[in-house]
Design goal:
2 copies of one chain form a homodimer. The first copy, chain A, has about 425 residues and is mainly alpha-helical. Chain A has 3 domains: about 110 residues, Alpha Horseshoe (MgtE N-terminal fold), CATH 1.25.60.10; about 120 residues, CBS-domain; about 170 residues, Orthogonal Bundle (Tetracycline Repressor, domain 2). Chain A is built from 21 helices and 6 strands. A 3-stranded mixed sheet of chain A has the order 1-2-3. In chain A, α16 packs parallel to α21 and α19 runs antiparallel to α20. The termini of chain A are far apart. The model of chain A has no long low-confidence stretch (mean pLDDT about 90). Chains A and B meet through α2, α11, α12, α14 and α15 of A and α2, α11, α12, α14 and α15 of B.
């Protein structure tokens, strides 16, 4: 047994890269995870922590004191360190900051002063800056004085004496240009400078559009604050995507896959409660037709088909619209076109499947009127569904509500109510 | 009118970057899109085409002949060109290839020989290669002979005389090292070489794990074939994420937001048909209890609550599992733990919401037995839902079926059937 533990310890501390250790911890249920963490050398804690999802990260951070945190985070990049600190209570952050050297503290505080989801929160103050009036030869000699360059250094940032960013010099251009020319003569002046207050999604869009590897971040005064590198942008892109998928089920994208049962139950209960409100509204709508159902029970047998087909048609439209909004394809000018398109799609598919479902119902219950009624209800519900699928995300967006989170519940509530009321209402009108 | 067109033409051809023109085209309904495309200079077609989604890209590609294609694609990177060609019928590909210069044709054919979703399909043969036995000074002079270096060149690839990749030299190391040393002495030999047959998702994982900017691609014989750059990997990450969201609604991630109504209806109809089969199964299950419903219509009023809460609970579990599988957290070893956790979560939330729904039902219909029956059905359905949500993606994965596409339909069919049968079955047993 102790031999196996020794082997695990060796693997964790020497065999695996920190990113792989983090992945292993995230793939392990709580008890085993505890054991693995205990086997890990404390000086590796910080390296591993930075690769963990927020939920698991917090689990370990919460039981470290300021001194342990300081040991663990030594040698981390400033942006990664700031990410970790942002998770902690203010008092602990202050304690850790107090025990840092003045220069390092200032750099970390600069990043911490911006929210995590802004360019300022993503940036790293590790940029290499140069002056415009030196030759490339001097630049090359200056670089050679470094032990190593920061990761993803594809450009040098050209600043004035007062730290104002006036240009960038790509390393590639530095390597192919004549060494006797001045920086000013070869630097690019039409570069992408990111405002520190820009949102991380806007940063991601900019990087994707222009295939950037790094970009400088400036304050409102045009002074250089730091730079953002593609590896952090990739994390933003991945998290944004996960956010959409997870929030459609009312979940958090940082959720630990192996969270304990009690915590999981508590977190999921809220979403179930919200959906119970929706289901109750639907049930109340059906309640108005209790007498009709009492007389024709076949209605209760068929009614889930109408609501379910409406839900599917609506969620297809909703998904296309949410993506279109996220990609910036959908704007006020073309919503009208989309609305008409979806109206046509809803009616077309409504008619096609109305015929199928109507025929099936006539065959099953030997009742032509029932077939006509369900067919009409299908056309109504699929048309309303596609219209609702178009308008819900557009309106939610206008009120700055996340359509991925609340769009689905709103939509199915509408398609359920409309589906049941159309079907049962038509039945009440034509049968009784 | 003609003044406005002239202005639009100027903006398209000189004011906007090709990536922005592509975005504009994708944000425009068909007719206006047609007009904009007509205003675009033919030599810009290729630049713009490479930034379009597959669906819109194909729309324009389909009406170009081989000669137009050749003009349009002049100057494109080999990997981008191969991406475009892959969309076309084989005869057209051959025609375009025939009219290329021999060397360019060979390079494009090499990329085309690998499927689009592999490392070989992503790679670009534009790597800068050097020999191990030259000094860094010679390397620097060699680089200076280039007009420009390929984008995202963060490493030089060290190869033998027979093109076998034996090391990489990062530009950063080149810049800080003594120029008199040999490449062999400073090159890295523990680099990440990607097999040409590796899947694009594996490539994306590797880039994310190790914060890579570019990585070499080799054949089975260890010979260098090309390199993959982070900008193409970012596209893979984004497309993988979009695939998950879109396929949950039975849609394709390449779908044009502004596809015409008829094409949209046809594409969506298939998914509606599959869901109709599921809804029919559910309806047949309810049909067994027609007599019970005839006697107690309140059952029909309440039954959607049971099925809908089960569907929500199940889809929460399904979402967590699909993500866990995609991230590589879930494996055979820990599925058992997850199954037990989800069983506990399902029972806990089942009990909590059973009490609430039971009480609401007693209050609404003044019938204690009805409350007991719906509470029992809730516990059963939420427990089954979380178990199904765990097992469905694990099993689908085993059979190599995409869980994001078919998981949802399978799950709601199960939660609907179990929910209705449990509720109506218990009512039949205890009431009649």
């Amino acid at each position: 047994e102790s031999g196996a533990l020794d082997q695990a310890r060796r693997m964790l501390n020497r065999g695996l890269a920190p990113v792989d250790v983090a992945h292993l911890l995230e793939s392990t249920p709580p008890k085993e995870r505890e054991i693995l963490w205990g086997l890990l050398d404390p000086e590796l804690h910080g390296d591993v922590l930075q690769y963990l999802g927020d939920d698991v990260q917090l689990e370990f951070l919460n039981r470290m004191d300021a001194e342990q945190l300081l040991t663990a985070t030594e040698g981390l990049d400033v942006d990664d360190l700031a990410d970790l600190l942002q998770q902690l209570p203010n008092t602990v952050i202050q304690e850790v900051l107090q025990s840092m050297e003045a220069q390092e503290r200032q750099r970390v505080e600069a990043v911490l002063s911006y929210p995590e989801d802004t360019a300022g929160g993503l940036m790293n103050p590790d940029a290499i800056t140069i002056r415009p009036d030196i030759t490339l030869d001097v630049v090359l000699r200056y670089l050679r004085r470094h032990e190593r360059l920061p990761d993803a250094t594809d450009t040098l940032l050209v600043v004035t004496r007062r730290d104002e960013l006036i240009g960038i010099l790509s390393i590639n251009r530095l390597l192919v240009s004549d060494v006797s020319v001045l920086v000013r003569e070869v630097m690019q002046t039409d570069f992408h400078a990111i405002q520190a207050t820009a949102s991380d999604s806007d940063v991601a869009t900019l990087f994707q559009k222009h295939d950037l590897i790094s970009a400088p971040v400036v304050g409102i005064d045009g002074k250089l604050l730091g730079r953002i590198t593609i590896d952090d942008v990739v994390d933003v892109i991945r998290e944004d995507a996960e956010h959409q998928v997870m929030s459609m089920a009312g979940l958090d994208e940082d959720e630990d896959t192996f969270a304990p049962a009690l915590r999981t139950s508590r977190r999921r209960a809220v979403w179930l409660g919200i959906n119970l409100i929706a289901a109750t509204i639907v049930s109340i709508a059906i309640g108005f037709f209790e007498d009709t159902i009492q007389q024709i029970a076949a209605l209760a047998v068929l009614m889930p088909i109408v609501s379910s087909m409406g839900g599917i048609a609506g969620s297809q439209t909703l998904t296309v619209l949410i993506r279109g909004i996220a990609l910036g394809h959908v704007s006020g000018a073309n919503v009208r076109w989309l609305l008409i398109r979806e109206l046509l799609v809803g009616m077309t598919n409504g008619l096609i499947w109305a015929v199928v479902v109507g025929a099936m119902s006539v065959f099953r219950f030997d009742d032509i009127r029932l077939g006509e009624i369900i067919a009409m209800a299908m056309v109504i519900n699929l048309t309303v569904a596609t219209l609702a699928g178009t308008l819900i995300p557009v309106m939610l967006k206008k009120f700055k509500i996340d359509p991925a989170l609340s769009g689905g519940v709103l939509l199915t509530t509408i398609t359920d109510v409309v589906g049941f009321v159309a079907f049962l209402g038509l039945a009440t009108a034509f049968y009784l």
